[in-house]
Amino acid sequence: MSQDQIKRQIQDKFPDLLAEKPKKQEEREGLPPLEGAEHGKVVTRFPPEPNGYPHIGHAKAAIIDEEYAKMYGGKLILRFDDTNPEAERLEYYAAIKVGLDWLEVKYDRVKNTSDDIELLYKKCQEMLDGNYAYVCTCKQETISANRREMKPCKCSMGELEQNKDRWDKMFSKFGQGDAIVRFRGNMSSENTVMRDPVMFRIIETKHPLLGDKYRVWPSYDFAVAIEDSIDGVTHAFRTKEYELRNELYYIILDLLKMRKPKVIEFSRLGFEGMPVSKRVLRPLIEEGKVSGYDDPRLPTLEALKRRGIRQDAIRKFVLSLGFTKADTLAPFETLESFNRKIVDPESIRLHMVKNPASIKIRDLPSGTITMPNHPTKDMGKRTIELGEEFYLESEDIEKLKPGDAIRFMGLGNVKITSQSPAEGQYVGDELGTNIPKVHWVAQKNAQKIKVLIPSQLFIGEEFNAASLQEINVFTEPHYNELKEGKEIQFVRFGYCRKDSMLQAIYTHK
RNA sequence: GCUCCUGUGGUGUAGUCCGGUUAAGCAUACUGCCCUCUCAAGGCAGUGAUCCCGGGUUCAAAUCCCGGCGGGAGCACCA
Questions:
Q1: A345-358 confidence digits (pLDDT tens)
Q2: Which nucleotide is nearest to A51 (CA to C1')?
Q3: A254 lies in some domain
Q4: N or C: which end of chain A has fewer CB within 10 A?
Q5: CA separation (Å) from A42 to A30, A286, A501?
Q6: What pTM was estimated for this model as a whole?
Q7: Complex-level ipTM
Q8: Position A471 in a domain
Q9: Do A78 and A46 form a contact (C-beta atoms < 8 A)?
Q10: Nearest nucleotide by C1' position to the A375 CA atom
């Protein structure tokens, strides 16, 4: 049989074998495809609780939410999940918006879970009417003990009427801690969240938006499910620690006969030695160990920005991490690398000397020198006034012996005539190849500034007391002309962001 | 402790659903060379993974099955 014949026979008898396999995915760009996503119909949501300043973790979530909406021509909703007045504050609603603006995450709609509180009550009513929930007046300790021991609560035995009555009382007679409404789950479920979880509780604290108008507040589990459903969310992303709550989420919507979004989880993003939790950050701020939420050692968006990290570097970085459930302690150096590439072409080059040693140069041909602000990009030039006295890095100067020739970058060649005191003589401007090149600062008009060098806040569990190094340095007067927030590359040192007139923050090498 | 999730080079991942065409792609880190008045950026090349371990299925397994082990999370009137 010839090859062709064989082929024909196979085609006749076993067409399956020749069927094109669904081609393997080609190199994918960005996020993996979403299950059940229809172009134009995807709705995602970013649901932060306004209880703190946004950080890199929020960035990851928001960017993923936005990217997917964008990928499918859908919509992104920003929804403040403000159902616990004890934790939330007005300033945080604003801070989160500021953070999102900086990240250039654009949402199509903003809302608050608290906007829907009446509707949430109505849904709770439905649950109560269907006997899918009950009001429990047990003490907190009793409740958690029963949970642990898988024992049903005596309140769950009550009549519909009792629940109705108690529910009404939650709005009048009962005070905080007196009663909660509980989902009728399964006290012997292996999944502890199904052991009659809380749906509503009384909180007397004023709500940042609604004041004291309401005191019965839904729990997260009840609110997200309802909200996601009525908001038209098709794909709801949350971090892995919520995974066990999926069962509850879906069952609530089933019982209420509401549309069910698809919940998908991803791993949390954190950096080594850079805690994100308010529990550990707050004491640090209170004790003055860090200056505030924008201390450059912190992973808050404000801090990252202040440190000189760009918005688009964060986005690239987040996307490079992939959409997985594997625990990741992300490599900060990767973020830095993305950032460096963004910042490099727009950073002015300046000289800065950190461990200054003086040297006197004779026979300079001119009292000024003009230098380009960037080696390849056209970013203008600056003119520097010179005297005879210069600062060099002491480690550069230490290597010099009389007779040596060095290149003052951008200025010219200098022959060393004396070691101490260090002195040299200008010997021309031809650019030799093997001559050591050093950066320098003219002492005339030299600017004294401080450079903050952040490093890892925690080493293991230990607070790293040396995590913020401050050095006093000399730089060129041109520094004064730069706008605050500008990124600079100090030649042979690294990238820094101008924080103020007197201070720059080291971004990375 | 119980339950759930997870495990690919130093690091982060792609590929795992639908087993072969990849003894594994990319990024980052590292090394070397080129370029360069920077220890930056750019260009090129390279080092580096028996795909956690042990069994099994199969002509064939990172990919399927079973059992271990490691890591993380949940067990709140927080989200």
A1: 999 999 999 999 99
A2: B79
A3: yes
A4: N
A5: 17, 43, 47
A6: 0.92
A7: 0.94
A8: no
A9: yes
A10: B36
